[in-house]
Amino acid sequence: MGLEIDDPVEILLVEDNPDDEELTLMALNRYNIGNRIHVVRDGEEALEWIFANGRYEGRNQKHHPKLILLDIKLPLVDGLEVLRRIKEDTETRRIPVVLLTSSREESDIVKGYENGTNSYIVKPVDFTQFGEAMRTIGMYWLLINTPPAL
Amino acid sequence: MASTYTALQLVSAIAFGLVGLASIIDWARHRGRSRAALALALGGLGAVSLIGQLTQHYPNLQYPTSFLTVPLFLASGYGLLLFRNELIPYRRWIFFGATGLVVITALATLVAEGLAGPQPAQPKSTAEVDPKLLIAIILFLLVWAVCIVQPAISLFIHSRGRPAVQRARIRSLSLAYGTIIVVLAVDIAVLSATGFKTTGNLGLQIATEVIVIATAPLMYFSFSPPTTLRQIWRSREEEQLRQSLHDLLLATPDRTELATKALGWVIRLVGAEGGLIADSQRLLAVQDLEGPEAEELRRGASELMGRGLLPMSGRRSAFRVPLSLADGEGSVVLVSGPFTPLFGDDEFGHVELYTVSLAAAMDRASLIAELRQNQASLERRVAERTAELQATNKELEAFSYTVSHDLRQPLRAIDGFSRALTEGLDAQALDSQTHHYLDAISRNAQQMGRLIDSLLGFSRLSRQALQPRRISPQPIVRQVADSFLEQANGHAPTIEIGELPLCSADPVLLEQVFTNLIGNAVKFSAKKEDPAVEIGARTEADGTVIYFVRDNGAGFDMKYADKLFGVFQRLHNQRDFEGSGAGLAIVQRIVHRHGGRVWAEGEVGKGATFYFTLAGNS
Fold first, then answer.
1. B chain contacts of residue A104, beta-carbon cutoff 8 Å
2. Within a domain: residue A4?
3. If we measure between CA atoms, which residue out of B51, B53, B47 comes closest to residue B6?
4. What percentage of chain B carries pLDDT values higher than 90?
5. Domain holding A137: CATH number?
6. Domain span including residue A78
7. What average pLDDT does range B284-310 have in this prediction?
8. Do A102 and B416 touch (CB under 8 A)?
9. B391-419 pLDDT, tens per residue?
10. Contacting residues of B for A127, CB less than 8 Å apart
């Protein structure tokens, strides 16, 4: 990634599976979305990064990402919990969060919306479709959607 | 007037003589101590009356027969005392004291008679009678009166609460003796008021005689009431009995409780001292019997065929009436005591009728109990199974959740990286063989993804709640058909939609059924020259509507018809016809969840027809 700890980040990708991480980055790169992407690999690390503590002590918390791509199934703290904490905090609640998951389970979708997710993407098996989905998300949240003044 | 009086005296003597004789015959026929006591009382009274009548005509016999009349007269009172003692025993000292007093009085009177010698046949007043004899006679009368008054009153009181027939019998006896005593007391009072002039008041004498005669039938009824009278006495009680039987039958579902109540009534019906009701195995109800005694009676009764008597210790006896229950013959056993009247066919008939109703009620009670028990165990089993099913369902959910997450991820990686490889190598003129392999990898990964998706869809289908509504399939089918026609690029089949009656179904799921069936029809007929699909329905005689989807496509061999609806069962290879193999399984699952049936007919190369019904569309 080559990003310094305090560099402004466009997209925070929370993904534990290295293959999915690579595929996601590949898809994002294909459409030139998000030049500055930071990847964290479990829920705990995600929270530390977002709230600038633990491993990310000293990171400027004011530098919110423009978008968080959050996998639901994560080690340590799961995605839904991370989502809840982000949406609970008045500082971070305005960051758009898109849940990424393999699951088509309705209970997850319902819980996701209850916890305030901005969008929900089921990662398709077909890579072409996956890339298409990533492009749509990126275009919408980074380019079309005007973020609220933080 | 005088002749009327003489005639009345004769009638009275004969009446009492007959009653006395009847009571003795009754005792001789049926035995029993209470009958003996009554025979002594009434027989004594009858004998005294007859002897009195005899001495009217032969005055010179008066003195010698008086030695006979004195003990007989006393016996008539003492008999009643004995009778009372049989039914309601006196305390021992009272009984022996009374007996002693009676004997002493008898002896004293006899001695006084002897000493006084013959008296004037028709004394004009008490002054003509020997004073010693007079005292003896007064003492004698007092003792006699006590012997009668005490039992008459106590029996009358005791009769309250007894069965109607017994009550009436005891009361008629009490009433008869009570009347005699009252008449006698009035006579003596009148005599003493007139200076013991024994003649002259003929009117009083006639009235006395008429009243006394009237007591004779009362006495007779006390030991041998005619059937008609018994029926009259019992009628009110029987009405209550019928009512109670009705209540028993309708309102007592518990067998033991039923038996207990019924026993109380049947004991009351016949005036028994106790009894029991048993089925073929065990005692159900016992009243006024010791435990071992009841068990012994039950065993004895079960060995009897039909109705009959059972031996018992003491002065009691028992009779048994069979109780024909569905699970074997039981018994109703009634124990007779001193109060129990002798049974006529009338009573036996009643008890037997009663037991028939009782058996019916008891059978009903056991059926209800059995039913309840079955229901309870059924409910328990349903609850257990439901819990098991819920647990299984939870596991299944967890499983499909895992499948949906974990199986899709590696597939995505396979597809994604093989695509990346293709794209990355395209620039370097990838050779066709490698291109083909990568393509195959990607295609298979996608196919497996679809399989997983349909498997999950299929499993989700069974967990979703059904929301049936009254709907018309017509617009649904129209829409499904149109969407297939749009997709069919160029080679569209003709789709004919017939009359489709209303049905009760979940609209979303019904659409799924038609989508899968019409989709199959379109798919399998696509290779025909002129593909045709027909959707229609027909109504059976019983009102069941059968919907069908017919095509003229590839068809299938009927010997594989049972494999059509299995999950991932395919009758055609993937190369010819794409598909996950879950479509028909989903159709079957939905139809079954609607309480319907699905089946198919087909012939290879000629086409196939799929039929299905939905419950509640008739």
1. 404, 453, 456
2. no
3. B53
4. 7
5. 3.40.50.2300
6. 11-142
7. 84
8. no
9. 887 787 777 777 777 778 888 888 888 88
10. 412, 415-416, 419-420, 442
Q: Which residues, 6+ apart, have CB-to-CB distance to A106 below 8 Å? A: none
Indicate the pairing of strand A97-101 with strand A67-71.
parallel
Question: How far, in Å, CA of B156 to CA of B176, rounded?
Answer: 11
Domain assignment of residue A2, yes or no: no
Domain boundaries in chain B?
Answer: 2-225, 235-371, 465-613
Give residue for tokens 């869809």.
B457
Tell me whether residue A29 is in a domain: yes
Domain B235-371 coded CATH 3.40.50.1820: no
Structural domain count, chain A: 1
pLDDT of amino acid A2? 45
Q: How many Cα neighbours within 13 Å face the side chain of A25?
A: 17
Which residues of A touch chain B, with CB atoms under 8 Å apart?
17, 19-20, 23, 26, 73, 101-105, 123-128, 130
Tell me which chain A residues have a C-beta less than 8 angstroms from the C-beta of B449: 124-126
Test A124 with B406 for CB contact under 8 angstroms.
no
Coil/strand/helix, residue B339: coil
CATH T-level assignment (fold) for domain B2-225? Rhopdopsin 7-helix transmembrane proteins (1.20.1070)
Residue of B nearest to A20 (CA): B413
Tell if the CB–CB gap between B409 and A20 is shorter than 8 Å. Answer: yes
Alpha-carbon distance of B243 to B247, in angstroms, equals 6
- CATH fold of B465-613, please? Heat Shock Protein 90 (3.30.565)
Picking from A87-101, B212-226, B307-321, B529-543, which range would have the lowest pLDDT averaged per residue? B307-321
